[in-house]
Amino acid sequence: MHGPIHSLQLIRYGVAYVFITSGLVKLLDPSFEEIFANIGIPYPAIALLLVALIEVIGGGFILFQFYVKRTVIPLLTIMITALLLTKIPMLHAGFLSFAFGARLDIIMILLLAILWRSYAK
Description:
By secondary structure, the protein is mainly alpha-helical. It contains six helices and no strands.
């Protein structure tokens, strides 16, 4: 029988789940290319494929505890960019609208920061 699951493992599992599912949806749902184009991302098809692959592969690396510290950097970049491009504009509707809309982004950034600090190179 296996020992107890530690909080860092739960964080890894949760972060991996979010990124793997997010990346797979981006790969399978053609409407995401239009979303990327509408927020002004250049070459939306290429950017979408790149982001989706980084999310799926990065989520897998975190799930299986493979280069966790190095994997966190591109995932943090994706989350901060998403926050800046899609959530910061929500501040025009008021702080509560922004806080509600950005809740997953902010939590994922915090969890990625915990992973980055907790793992050696």
